[in-house]
Design brief:
Chains A, B: Keywords: Oxidoreductase. Two copies of one chain form a homodimer. By secondary structure, chain A is of the alpha/beta class. Chain A has two domains: 173 residues, NAD(P)-binding Rossmann-like Domain (Rossmann fold, 3-Layer(aba) Sandwich); 104 residues, Orthogonal Bundle (6-phosphogluconate dehydrogenase C-terminal fold). In chain A, 51% of the residues lie in helices and 13% in strands. The interface between A and B is large, with 87 and 87 residues.
């Protein structure tokens, strides 16, 4: 059974944080959300849209009295945020983040919170939209989504259980991994595809023919490149924070691509078909 | 206004050809479809599903008496098919293909049909599904789809107009390009993404961790890799037929990727953000 929280402090009223606030209120797990965003106009908009109930003037003010604290800021801002709110990360409060990388977040928590980092549960809901901003917040974003928690050996068991129950109550599927495993897996299934999609779209631009190219693009292009529309700030931080793992995955991709290039160059239809069939069978069998 | 055809000869009763037969019959543009597939069981299934009306025992039999002939075979089989049916490609018949590459198809037509290649209109509807086979044929597949016609300077104008009218009557958006332009554009917006998606999926496979990786894959992975489930025979032929153009586009991608790698390696957040923003803005503005 998930706990009920009288007050949630939300730091970062964007798509991810806003969606969580809406979902928790709709599920009756949170009574009141006090929200803070670095940009006052975002905080005001979140209030107008009913995503948060009270506008806080600072991250500290958002956390005062909260039983649940959620950091929904770009991952690079995690350390700074923890520094500001460290006094509120306490045994009777569940503190989580929503960041897409986890080793850097765990490090930042340990550095800024010290011993009290044990009350913080690093969380990454694998969900999102190609549009950012609180105006796209959606109470159903996490329903059916995969959520990875990456507690350290020091993390308090009861906090992990509380976090697990919270996400399950929203209809998410919870996985528990180490931060290292998380970053390695996500580099493969999320960060590398984003990097490829960004680089691919840019490779089409900047020439006279770009417009004609894009006019003839069809459904394959649409799906393949959808993630290239991702938020620049968020993905900048993710690609930087996890660059070592991503570079490793990119090397694997290049090796795989070279197999295709060799078969194409040699005109080896059988080898090429076998390579495509391997991918096609694996992708056809996958379902989320 | 689109012409009406009493009889359509369909060679290749798969997803693409079957969908066209269904669409033309539903639109009242074709009365009877005589179909042939290399595999007799496919031809029989197409008849049972009502995609074709009459099973032909050979490609020639499918074409005898047809006013509209459609080749819907893997592109590498185009030459051989034209050789078999060359006597039926005549001034009073509209002959089209549906292949994803066009320079090789035009060459095969000129070689096998000689002077009568002028009655053949090379066509490529940019549509498809991640599943192949006549059982997935869909009368609405081409509605709203982009269709590229690549007539040569020799192609009869009235045949191009007939082909154009036919596709427009199905709700498709028709573009006319040279075969070279087509192959260059499609290498960029379709063939390269397929190659990347195939190679990417294969790069995740074959290790103990593959299963765990795929279990944690989310909506980004789903969309990015959807086209990796494409038909192996079809894509083998496309990647081989258009390998020169694809190799050129791949080089552009590698250059673009290197810009990201440099920024990531240098930890240059501003440069990285600018690169991502360029892609994100372009992709956000695109719509099909």
């Amino acid at each position: 059974m998930a706990m009920m929280y009288n007050q949630m402090g939300l730091i970062g009223c964007g798509l991810m944080g806003g969606s969580l606030a809406l979902a928790l209120k709709r599920a009756g797990l949170v009574k009141q959300v006090v929200g803070y965003s670095k940009s006052p106009s975002t905080t005001a908009k979140a209030r107008q849209l009913g995503v948060i109930d009270v506008e806080a003037k600072s991250a500290m003010q958002a956390c005062a009295g909260a039983e649940l604290i959620v950091l929904a800021v770009p991952v690079a801002a995690t350390g700074e945020t923890f520094k500001t709110i460290r006094q509120f990360v306490q045994p009777d409060v569940l503190t989580m983040d929503l960041g897409s990388t986890k080793q850097d977040v765990v490090q930042a928590a340990e550095k800024q919170l010290g011993w009290n980092a044990q009350y913080f549960v690093p969380a990454h809901p694998i969900a999102g939209k190609e549009v950012a901003g609180v105006e796209h917040a959606d109470a159903t974003l996490y329903h059916g989504a995969k959520v990875v928690l990456t507690p350290t050996p020091a993390t308090a068991i009861d906090k992990v259980e509380q976090a697990q129950a919270l996400w399950k109550a929203l209809g998410s599927h919870v996985f528990i991994l180490s931060a290292l495993e998380h970053d390695s897996v996500l580099a493969a299934v999320s960060h590398l595809p984003h990097l490829l999609a960004f680089a691919y779209v840019n490779s089409l631009l900047g020439r006279d023919e770009s417009e004609r190219l894009l006019r003839l693009a069809g459904p394959g292009f649409r799906d393949f490149s959808r993630i290239a529309a991702g938020d620049a700030t968020l993905w900048r931080d993710v690609l930087l924070a996890n660059r070592v793992e991503i570079a490793g995955r990119l090397r694997e991709l290049v090796l795989s691509l070279q197999q295709f290039q060799r078969a194409m160059h040699a005109g080896d239809a059988d080898a090429l078909e076998a390579l495509i069939r391997k991918a096609s069978v694996a992708r056809s069998q996958w379902h989320d």
